[in-house]
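Final report, closing paragraph on structural work. Over the funding period we assembled a curated collection of sequence-structure pairs, and we close with a single example.
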Amino acid sequence: MIFQFKNKKKQQQEWKLKTIEYAQQLNEFIKKGILSNWEDVGDEPSDNGREKHVDSLLKEIRKANESGTYEELRENWPLAHSPLLKILEENGQSIPTIKILDDSRIVARIGTHYQEGYVVEIKGEKVTVVTEVEHFGATPNNEFFAFTQENGVIVTKGWLGETVSVLPYPQGTENVPEGFDVEPFDGRIIPSRLVPFPDGKRVLFVAPEGIFVLEEENAVRLLPTEEDMREHFKWLRDEYPDDALEMSLDMEHGAVSPDGKFIVVGSQDSSHLIFNENYELIGDIGNMSEYPHYALFNNASDYVALNSCHFYNGITIGVELGDLPLETEAYEDNEKVIVLEELSRVYAGVCRNDEFIIGDASGYIRAFDKAGKQLWFHFIGSSIGDIDVTKDGKTLVCSTYAGFISIISLDGKDQKDYEIGSGLHTESRRWVLWKNEPKPLIW
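Its predicted structure, as stored:
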């Protein structure tokens, strides 16, 4: 018994020591890279053999959740990501949508949009499944929420509040060019993103089958455009005359400005397309990396950040909406387009005051302003699923494809010595929601 205790204590001490050591080395490496523009920085620090302690770590996490000794757990077994990579292959799962409500509850979709999945509500130390919700989206200010239902997408005032709109699903025949017979969708399609408009009367419906604006009686297709469909359907007729006329999107994404006056959409095969509230194309912005991937408006609705990617990297550019209408060429500099960030393939984003806060494919949260000044970064690990921030700007919530939900206190007095980042931000709680774990765990 004494030997087991000593061995456990030794493992715990080694985990903590090596976790702090690795974080400090990586922080120094990143600092050097930023100062030198990543020239002659040498090799990135390698991890230092903590994988052998993962089983002990998980036992201690489970034990702490039974006893409620979370502070002691974090002190003895600080957060880390790279030692968990092997176990994440079996346990990790996507959390693509997350929102922090005005009363501090957190709601999140577990499972990619095309999986059966489910939605959870986190309140304090309790996690419950919200059985009546399948997919959801919200306005930035939490005023309206959109939910998928059998009979259409409903919009409610607040989370599961009073219904203000019921909008029909796309049929698949919207805006099809004349001369082409396209079969309607076989049943309702599943969105990868839902974005209510600020009046609660419309919803941007993003899916691999197309990007639509849902209105009270019909849907309007924004992507693929009529020109895209005409070219593709003509090609299908010529090359594969027996095939059905179908078209799908990859890397589909879209956003609505907080004032509802602008819509931006894109996909792997498009440029960054900006529409006004009447669905007129007023911006066709060329991508600066390979594939358009994400878009984010600022809170004032006068600026938009546009990300394009190549593998795990990418470039984010910014456009003043007052400069619209505007058309630029891909990969070409333009005086009305500002390069904001040149590292990230962006999966999620939110605005806080004048900051764009984005989450990338490498597990980093990064903040910059609309002049392209890099403000801070914070490492979570895996690819970021979604991000949200409280109205007072003091708390950030972040989900990942590894099945983690991180709650981060912003602008504090210090940062923990085991954390990887450059700002005075610290992760106050991490939820572990894994496939093969019987229940959610706090780390």
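DSSP finds five helices and 30 strands in the chain. The helical segments are 2-35, 54-67, 70-76, 85-91, 226-239. We thank the funder for supporting this effort.
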